[in-house]
Amino acid sequence: MDAEQIRGLGPMLDDFLGKFAKCFARRDTRAHLPVYVGGQLSNLPRKSVEPIALAAERPVRTLQEFLSQLDWDHDRMRECVAEILFEDHGNCEATGVIDETGWVKKGRHTPGVQRQYCGAVGKQENCIITVHLGYVAGEFHCLLDGDLYLPASWDADRVRCQAAGIPDDVVYRSKSDIALALHDRARKNGVRFEWLTFDEWYGGKPAFLRALDQRGQKYVAEVPKTVMAWIAPAPRVTNRPFRKRSRGSSRKTPRLVAGSAEPRTLEELSRRHPALSAVPWQTYQIKNTEKGPLVWHVKHVLVSVKDEQGLPAAPQHLLRCTNPLTGEVKYFLSNAPPDTPPTKLLRVAFSRWHVERCFEDGKGRIGLDHWEGRRWIGLLRHLALSLVSYLFLARVQTQMGKKNPGPDGLPTICGHQRRPAIPHDGPGRRPAIARPRGLVSEVPPEAQRPGSTVTHEAHPSPVERNRYHALVTPPV
Fold first, then answer.
1. Does the N-terminal or the C-terminal CB of the chain have fewer CB atoms within 10 Å?
2. Regarding beta strands 282-289 and 292-306, do their DSSP bridges make them parallel or antiparallel, or are they unpaired?
3. Does 432 lie in the same domain as 284?
């Protein structure tokens, strides 16, 4: 950004914050909004209430009351964020990303704090957990909503909840239930997601996936390898009653027909099932990172997951992805229509980095985890104000900043293609097409090794892994 653009950020911020005037009934209360947001956008090393107030030459107590006592509508502020996203960044192929983040906290009075696993430090720690919904539309991403995870230990101690200002109707909810509530609130506020994606902790909750399917929401979910399924076509189900000649109760209905194959875990299917072994590996370069190109071997089939009654559910897409360098294996399930191309599913499956980047920027740039307080409403208002600050940052980057290279070769918004996949011209022939940064395309088999065949094993052989460096080396 040049000097003229930097000078223009002040009026731009004033115009942007004017969109949230309806959240405040009093002008003097609204005057604290630019102070808090300006402090989050500043270069202060610590962006809690006290440093922000001192830098703005305001009484610290006044800004504390703005968060926890003064009368203004933080729910309406979240609605305004959704309205701005819908009007200015609406996209026919927008993706919602669900994830959680932890904030390390000392003491025991912060709402929701307890010793639990904290992803920020990768171990058990005294922290609070917040569940978030991110919004991704092409090159643009931001945080759309977030809420506090209240552990069961807090719900059982209502005296402790009252001391933190937590209402009696705020009780323990699982993280997947919070994620559903965030999704429903976004849809109520006018935001529509073509896709939803999340990690295997949420993907391993059948009730969560079923609830999304009932809402008509398409998803690409990373799931655990222990999910039970059949390779399509699934065994037949019958409702015909059957009673043995001897005494005893009849068999339950509906049930699988006699002689049907037993379901297997996704790991067992990928290793032993002949139908999946016959599917050839397809190699995709997902994107270029600071550590080099990200390449995955992928198999794509249709499966039927075992439901709670032991019966096959509707067919779903299964993507089995193997990293040829590390050997890491990921499984993704999607309820998309059967004719959906795997390239589109892969684009959604590997888009979770957007919300991770949102957490990184939110904590490093606007002080998302710098909040210090003991009141529940103060935490919720801090989350709402952080949404406003991050949305302004994202808009400035989109309008003035350098755009990061996005995925190529996979369909973008509204079904357009950034760059066609490199065609297969036959063994030994590599098309002379330069690969830009951020390339996402199918790597042709001849680029792996002329005259060789791709193994169909669950893990590519060491010989195949050694081809990785020649596979991903960009042309000079």
1. C
2. antiparallel
3. yes
